[in-house]
Amino acid sequence: MGFPKNPPRELTQEQWDLWQEGPLNRWALQHVADFIPTHEISPSATPYVWPEALTQNEEITSTLLDLYTDGLLIVKHGEIVYEKYFNDMKQDTRHLLQSVSKSILGILFGQLMSEGLVDPSKSIAHYLPQMQSSGYADATVRNALDMCVGVKFSEEYHDLDSEIQVIDRVSGWRGLNPGDPAGVRAFLPMITKMREHGTVFQYCSANTDVLAWIAEAVTGKAYVDLLSERIWKPLGATYSANMTIDDYGSPLANGGVSTTLRDLALVGQMFLNGGTMNGHQIVTPEWLLDTQAGPPIGSPLVEEVRKDRPGETYRNQFWITKGAHQEFYGVGIYGQYLWIDPVTETVIVKFSSLPIAKSAEYSLAHRELFISLSS
Description:
Beta-lactamase, seven-stranded antiparallel sheet
């Protein structure tokens, strides 16, 4: 498909710019560590053993193929009831999460806020003096967590002049252009303010990278080590995950995690368990309730935030539906999902390699699939 099976660190500009797109992503999303530098996120010494009550459901195979599925896992009432792999993916294969990585950061911040290490009402510059002259300086941590920072940032993935493309380039996900900043954390302070913070919902991947920087600042530990010590090990993860890093050692927290279906399902089950998993309290019940409730009435987020997600809201790096079951979920471009239904006690994890980053058609098709599988 024009992408080497064992690619060197130095790829052509065309290969760097296209590996996320179909059909190259059919291979690449399962092999990110083969061509981008990564740091390991360590698993648990006492892995969680999933109860299984596997059933066959051949009726959905055609739908899964139409949605470019690489793997699907369904957990009901704490038991794995369905597990299916496509496109050479296996149970131990790590797959790029894209923006489901943001939801992992949200969980980490639930811990840091509950422990008093981070005050969500404090400004970004309070924790990061490096951002004092940036558009983020007077934005609060809460603004960043809920995606209502008023910075100039375009999330148009195929616009060559967009800020998201700059982040891709400086993080090592695309080939560099002349004059590009030296890494993610050289670019973040260059982002400028466009409007008052907290007034408009604006999905901005850079917010998550700023928050990861704050997590390192308040703990004195590397972001990947925080994910290992505070999330992956306590959850009972069986396999190591990994995180892409730029040439200066900084993580791409907004989308750079790769993990397995079963280990990501632990995150969803932890929510249904009231914040506990494998004998560990990962987050507090209070934080879970705050996340599931969504932003408070009067917030700029209580509105239609995306055309392909009508009526939904966003809190702590999670999407919250306004359906009868009040599902909440993490989602990444090209079809990555962690879907949690608290009413039917269902967790669905889906990894995909859609040919395009996002579309309303694909989003709605996934939503309909998950609701039907949760019933």
